[in-house]
Write a structure and sequence with these properties.
With 42 residues, this protein is mainly alpha-helical. It is built from 1 helix and no strands.
Length: 42
Amino acid sequence: MADNYLEKHFEEYEARKAAYLRKKRHLPKCSIRPERPDDEAL
């Protein structure tokens, strides 16, 4: 079971991670903020 089992799974993980980060980089950032009242003492 030591025949590069961990190395293979780590390489697959790195490939999935790289694909996720490439996809994430092109997504728009969510900049919606909740509206606050003018007088925050209310």
